[in-house]
Amino acid sequence: MSFLEYAPAPESTAILNLKDSYGLFIDGEFVAGHGEPFATISPATEKHIAEIANADANDVDTAVRAARRAYDRTWSKLSGADRGKYLFRIARLVQERARELAVAESLDNGKPIKESRDVDIPLVAAWFFYYAGWADKLDYAGLGAAPRALGVAAQVIPWNFPLLMLAWKIAPALAAGNTVVLKPAETTPLSALLFAEILQQAELPAGVVNILTGAGDTGQALVQHPDVNKVAFTGSTAVGRAIAKSVAGTGKKLTLELGGKAANIVFDDAPIDQAIEGIVNGIFFNQGHVCCAGSRLLVQENIHDDVVERLKQRLSTLRLGDPLDKNTDIGAINSAEQLERIRELSDIGEAEGAERWTADCAIPENGFWFAPTIFDNVSTSSRIAREEIFGPVLSVLTFRTPAEAISKANNTPYGLSAGIWSDKGSKILAVADELKAGVIWANTFNRFDPASPFGGFKESGYGREGGRHGLAAYLQNSRLEPVETKGVRK
Amino acid sequence: MTINTPVALASDGRALSVLGGDLTERSLRLHLEGLSGVDAVGLEQRAADLGTRSIKTSSKAWALDRIIELIDLTTLEGADTPGKVRSLVAKALTPDASDPTTPRVAAVCVYGDMVPYAVAALGSAGINVAAVATAFPSGRASLRVKLADTADAVAAGADEIDMVIDRGAFLSGRYGQVFDDIVAVKEACRRDNGSYAHLKVILETGELNTYDNVRRASWLAILAGADFIKTSTGKVAPAATLPVTLLMLEVVRDWHRLTGERIGVKPAGGIRTSKDAIKYLVTVAETAGEEWLQPHLFRFGASSLLNDVLLQRQKITTGHYSGPDYVTVD
């Protein structure tokens, strides 16, 4: 028996107390939707999880009106300290129900339980704790004295980190004094609905947060609703562009966090074993469903062969399989549609002459799976070096000098993140200075912290989430941006 | 400075074959200082990740038995007596009197003057006797004394020698001196019939302080002919840690890739529970490979670990936990 064939250690789903069907969360209650309900399935087994309500334009309108009412009557009247109390309460409830949320997330999204348990859910709690602390300190956010909330925020989030993206959106919005209507992704609504239950548990005033499930048309109705003051979107660049057009000229504030094609630059003086781990974490974390994934490996030519060999050896030890198993490193691809896109782009990569290598691992019969794949000898003009694949596919390119590394790294329409691996601090700082990317990691990758702003250059979007900068997306400077005010400001 | 004659004899020319013909202090330094650096945060993160692997049921039963087979059951006290050593040997021979299926440990590890008692008590049981030598634990003695210490233990029947490197020389950059010492001690491990006692080289990672130093010292020891690289004496804190062991396993993995030769790794000191020991097994298997989980390639230097493993073993056999009174003190 091989010692490494660890006995299955699945996290039990018994901890979940799921309903057969979920309504829309509007004004503090679950209500029926008026669109055609849809099913959410587990991408690892294709098994049905629950039936989910579908919000139509009328439901969107009801939700926005509830949010407006809550803003006018309750939330904008509360002191920052009181808003903070609700956020602290939410953060603690997330921690208390962490295991349950982690299981739900892995079940619905397909990500390995070790990631939802050790990364996603702890960060969700951290985000609420962090912004809870800001709620009564907005005077110090760098936006002048007594900055004001915007009003109702419409938020649309993706399926790759369902609950974490929800936290990134809701926590700063509420801390700044806004109310929220949020739409989770069609394929991953489950954790947002459990979060709605947490809001009920926390006795958050009705209407402060409303959660609408549905597909693209629901999201479109939401961002185009005339009574929202703020639109925040995380997702593909194509949809982001459409939103930017529809919002143009309306006076709605907009933040977009879109795609990426990050360069992970490995110099020949890098701490090599840690760099290998970082490359693996950079692209295979969350099956590569990460907008800031290090999908372009730029490796210095003189260590290329060594790095690729070590990488292949390391990838051979990754475990692909049941997302609920604690030993799983690579889970399921989120949807059949996404799997199709990954396959299509990989085939194009092969057709364009890149050298394909796929880790030898057993693929389960049901569900959506894609084994970790490396493309070597990729040229900068290849589509797999240009387009976001959003899957466990790494393109390997080489460079000879730091100047070439910088120019290749920046040669992309995107600019969300980048990684630098070197033992030499001065080189790291000099290269980081030249990279056009919002987040640059040195000797690490895919690390997130609520205190650190996150966002992109160029087609990767605008605005920042996280940190003090993240508050600016949900506040207006009361001196520089006069708004119609009734009565005396508190 | 050219390293003197013993160098050419170094362990069938390991260093010569890797560094080339002009083996000098300078070429040795260039090689060691040219090794890629270690990022401490990344190394510790990887070690922590390996520590979260879940082992269940059949794997765990296998792992517990294997841990016992990998233990160097150790007593290294100033107060050691022949009686204490005989008691240790009895424990090595029969770890758990209530369960004859319990495997035996790999070796008993004692001070040099206790070797004859350990050898006599073990008889032909097939358990090795390891002796710490070279002015263990500090190593602060002349080379002449260190060699005599080693030769003495080998003559008394020690199968394995655990030597310490001169950390002072290493930290002040006198790599050639450390190298020569190891080569000389290796020669002192030679028995009359031409065979050699196994040489484990203790780096005392707690005194080397940085991971970069640990990596360099690991390469240095291997180049000089070590059969095993060992973390610690157990007399300096911190002793073995998972990140340090992971790093040393990466070195032996790279050495194997380079030369096809397998070097052993021995974490020693501070590993007290089965749970911790299993994390080490996972780290070995996922770094160097499962073929390293054998007594000639991996050891635990430990004393209290054995009883915890026995308690866990009893739990698997009987279905319930007993307690410290159901395993013997040695």
Describe this structure in words.
The complex is a heterodimer of chains A (490) and B (330). Chain A has 490 residues and is an alpha/beta fold. Chain A has helices spanning 57-73, 80-96, 98-109, 113-134, 162-175, 190-201, 216-224, 237-247, 272-284, 304-315, 336-351, 383-386, 402-410, 425-434, 467-472, and strands at residues 21-22, 24-26, 29-31, 38-41, 48-52, 148-149, 152-156, 179-183, 209-211, 230-234, 253-257, 263-266, 296-300, 355-358, 373-376, 393-399, 417-421, 439-442, 461-462, 475-476. Chain A starts with 20 loop residues before the first strand and ends in a 14-residue tail after the last strand. Chain B has 330 residues and is an alpha/beta fold. Chain B is built from 14 helices and 8 strands. Chain B has helices at residues 14-19, 25-33, 40-50, 57-69, 82-93, 115-122, 143-155, 167-171, 175-188, 205-208, 211-223, 242-259, 274-287, 305-318; strands at 71-74, 107-111, 128-132, 160-164, 198-202, 228-230, 264-266, 300-302. In chain B, α7 (143-155) links the parallel β3 (128-132) and β4 (160-164). Chain B starts with 13 loop residues before the first helix and ends in a 12-residue tail after the last helix. Mean pLDDT of chain B is 93; it is low at 1-11.
Fold blueprint:
The complex is a heterodimer of chains A (490) and B (330).
Chain A: E1 21-22, E2 24-26, E3 29-31, E4 38-41, E5 48-52, H1 57-73, H2 80-96, H3 98-109, H4 113-134, E6 148-149, E7 152-156, H5 162-175, E8 179-183, H6 190-201, E9 209-211, H7 216-224, E10 230-234, H8 237-247, E11 253-257, E12 263-266, H9 272-284, E13 296-300, H10 304-315, H11 336-351, E14 355-358, E15 373-376, H12 383-386, E16 393-399, H13 402-410, E17 417-421, H14 425-434, E18 439-442, E19 461-462, H15 467-472, E20 475-476
Parallel strand pairs in A: 1-5, 7-8, 7-10, 8-9, 10-11, 12-13, 12-17, 13-16, 15-16, 17-18
Antiparallel strand pairs in A: 2-3, 4-5, 6-20, 11-19, 14-15
Helix pairs in contact in A: 1-7, 2-4, 3-4, 3-6, 4-5, 9-10
Chain B: H1 14-19, H2 25-33, H3 40-50, H4 57-69, E1 71-74, H5 82-93, E2 107-111, H6 115-122, E3 128-132, H7 143-155, E4 160-164, H8 167-171, H9 175-188, E5 198-202, H10 205-208, H11 211-223, E6 228-230, H12 242-259, E7 264-266, H13 274-287, E8 300-302, H14 305-318
Parallel strand pairs in B: 1-2, 1-8, 2-3, 3-4, 4-5, 5-6, 6-7
